[in-house]
Write a structure and sequence with these properties.
Pfam families: PCMT. It contains ten helices and 13 strands. The protein is an alpha/beta fold. Strand 6, helix 6 and strand 7 form a beta-alpha-beta unit.
Length: 370
């Protein structure tokens, strides 16, 4: 399923196309998509197809089409501090984007059937935290992934504010999924070839809305011998006093790191605003390719019929567009008091400038490698 939008040259192009097609509609979802390069979740040798609006699968590794993820992120209506469960969490691409929105005081859990995919997701998460400058622009809720069949989650499991299931759900499993949802929560999952948003309005009442026609592989039901017990999936522990609400209890060190990074980020933002200079990063200009062609025609000169080449209307439009593009580029060069500068990781620079031991700086940087 996919192919709803044009292919992009890079991640920003892809997001521009998703916005233009109205799959991405809110600023926070756009920021999350721009922060994480979809190509980073592809295996080497396959990245060329990362910015097409198509699903990708290699062995057990799978990514849904970008338009699907966009609709899911919008339908979940994410807010800071919410708890999120991803059933069939795969590469962790979606869970990582969710973590950028729900922030450090949220809960972010994923269940994935294949052990090798969970290892792949953990590797990609580690690379994002350590290597991506985008990470420092957000307060992050790190996803926790567990191996298991999402149809065999413990019956006494806690409930979540937001749930997404990334595989086709048969009607007889619909209620199983709904039980995992808190009252007031939102569940997004594919049912009978429709991506569906379900809101729990009461103890036994739900509102449903179809979002998009989709085609998903169905949930896997593990076969077992007679009398064989299922391998019950235990989700990450919740706070013992809140049996229905998962709570991540952070250490004092973690809380201190969150507060210090938040303070430095706020100071950086205030400093940028105080300078009164708009900082912009040069962006690529998209150009429409226009064919230049001429039309053969004939004119009479005396008694002779002589062929002549006449410019077509299409060529005139092409020339006009080229002139307009040249004028716009000239205008961009003459930007007055708007300074175009290279993008700098301001938070990283602030931390490195602190009079602290290198080991503590590394901790504040989340052990960044670059």
């Amino acid at each position: 399923m996919g192919g709803a939008v044009s292919a992009g040259e890079d991640n920003d192009d892809l997001i521009d196309n998703l916005k233009e097609a109205q799959y991405i509609r809110t600023e926070k979802v756009e920021q999350a998509f721009r922060a994480i390069d979809r190509g980073d979740y592809y295996l080497d040798g396959y990245r060329d197809s990362a910015y097409k609006d198509l699903a990708w699968k290699h062995g057990n590794i799978h990514l849904s089409a970008p338009c699907i993820y966009s609709e899911v992120m919008e339908a979940l209506k994410l807010q800071p501090g919410l708890s999120f469960l991803n059933l069939g969490s795969g590469t962790g691409y979606l869970s990582t984007m969710v973590g950028l929105i729900i922030g450090p005081y949220g809960v972010n859990h994923g269940v994935e059937l294949h052990k090798d995919v969970v290892e792949y997701a953990r590797q990609k998460l580690d690379e994002f935290i350590k290597n991506s400058d985008s990470f420092d622009k957000f307060e992050f809720c790190e996803p926790l992934f567990v191996v298991g069949n999402c149809l065999e989650i413990s019956t006494d499991s806690h409930q979540y504010d937001r749930i997404y299931c990334g595989a086709g759900v048969q009607k007889d499993h619909e209620n199983y999924m709904k039980v995992l949802l808190k009252i007031g929560g939102i569940l997004v999952m594919p049912i009978e070839d429709q991506l569906t948003q379900i809101t729990r309005t009461g103890q036994s009442t739900w509102d449903s809305r179809n979002i998009l026609a989709v085609s998903f592989a169905p949930l896997v039901q593990q076969s077992r011998g007679e009398g064989e017990k299922p391998d019950t999936v235990q989700l990450p522990l919740c706070h013992p006093s809140l049996s229905s609400a998962p709570v991540t209890v952070r250490s004092l060190q973690d809380l201190s790191r969150i507060y210090i990074r938040r303070t430095l980020r706020n100071l950086t933002n205030q400093d940028s605003q105080g300078k009164g200079t708009v900082q912009r990063v040069p962006h690529k200009r998209k150009r429409r390719r226009c064919r230049r062609r001429r039309i053969n025609t004939y004119v009479f000169v005396g008694n002779q019929l002589i062929p002549q080449m006449v410019e077509s209307e299409e060529e005139e439009h092409a020339e006009e567009e080229q002139k307009e593009a040249a004028a716009e580029e000239e205008e961009e060069r003459d930007i007055g008091d708007i300074e175009i500068i290279k993008q700098v990781n301001e938070l990283r620079e602030q931390i490195l400038a602190l009079p602290l031991p290198e080991s503590l700086k590394a901790y504040l940087l989340y052990y960044r490698e670059k």
